[in-house]
Amino acid sequence: MRIAQIAPLFEAVPPKLYGGTERVVSWLTEELVSMGHEVTLFASGDSMTAAKLEPVWPQAIRLDPAIRDWIAAYAVLMEYVAQRAHQFDVLHFHVDYFPLSLFSRLGVPFMTTLHGRLDLPEFKAVYETFPNAPFVSISDSQRLPLPRQNWVGTVLHGLPPQLLTPPAARTGEDYLAFLGRVSPEKGVDRAIRIAARAGMKLKIAAKVDKVDQEYFDAEIKPLLATGQVEFIGEINDAQKPAFLGNARALLFPIRWPEPFGLVMIEAMACGTPVIAFRHGSVPEVMDDGVSGFIVDDEDQAVAALGRLDSIDRAGVRAQFERRFTARRMAEDYVALYRRLSRRPDLSLVEAEAAD
C-alpha cells in the first residue's frame, strides 16, 4: 500500500530524548517499510527513516529557539500534505484535530490516531464537530470522554523487539526506577514516597518541561533530599536497557487517565515488572500478577514491592513479545488501512458489511 504517516513536528522522528508519539510513529513507519509497503513520512527535517522523508519543517520545533508560534508550522504541514494527498491509498495522521476540517472535505481515505488525553472540555467541543471523521484510540479507556466519535479501532502500541532487551546479567544493584516526565499527573512524588517507605533507592530518569519547572522546583526538589533518590534527567533509548533492566521494578504511580503509558511496555521489554496505579489504560496494558502488579494506592504499592519475587522476569519479557511488538502494531494498522481505503466514506463496520 501507499501509506502517508503524518507526524507531530515538536520532536524529530524518532526523538533524540523524550517523545512518546514521535517514537511510536517511528516504530510504526519502519515496520511498515520492512513489511514491503511504500511509506512516506511527513515530519521535521532532522528525522531519520527508511521511508521516504518529506521534511515539512527544517528541525524539530522543541529544538528551534526561533519558533514563537508553533501553529504556523502545523498550518504548513496540513497544506503540504493536502497537495500530495491523492498520491496515497491512506493518510495516517498523528497530529490531533489539525487535519479534520481540511481532510474531511478532500474525499481521500484518512484516519487519525489520538495519542493524548481526551477529557478536557475543549476537546469534546472540537472532536464532536467532526462526528464522521475516523479515529483510532490507543486504549479503549481513552475513548470514554468521547463515546460518540467514529472510533474505527483500538491499536495498542508496540515497539521493535530488539530495541530494548533484558541485560545478559543484572548488576545486582537494588533500586526502583521511574521513567518519563515530571508533572503532577505522572506521580513522581508518589514514587519517592513509595521507595522511601520500602527502604529502597529510587532512580528517576525524567524530563522537566518548561510548564512543569515551577512544580519541579516547589514540590519535587525538596523530596529529592528526603531519602535515597538519584535524579538522572532525560535518557535515550540506548540507555534504557541498563536503566530499566537492572531495576527491581518500574514505578508507574499515575494520578490521571493515562491514554497508554509507553514506559510500561518499555520496562516489560527489559523483563522488568511494573507496579502501576489503576488509572486509564493500565488494566488493558498490564497483566496483573504476570507483568507486575496493579494497585490502588501507595499502601498497596509498598505491599506489592514485597511480592516482586513472585514475578518471573523471563515471563515479563515473554508477555511483551506476545502483546506489544511493533509488528503486531503495524499489522493491526494495515488491517484498518485496507478496510478504510476501500470505502473512505464509511465507518469500518459499514465497509465490512459492504464487502
From TrEMBL:
Residues 169-302 form the Glycosyl transferase family domain. Residues 18-121 form the Glycosyltransferase subfamily 4-like N-terminal domain. InterPro entries: Glyco_trans_1, Glyco_trans_4-like_N. Keywords: Transferase. GO terms for molecular function: glycosyltransferase activity. This is Glycosyl transferase.
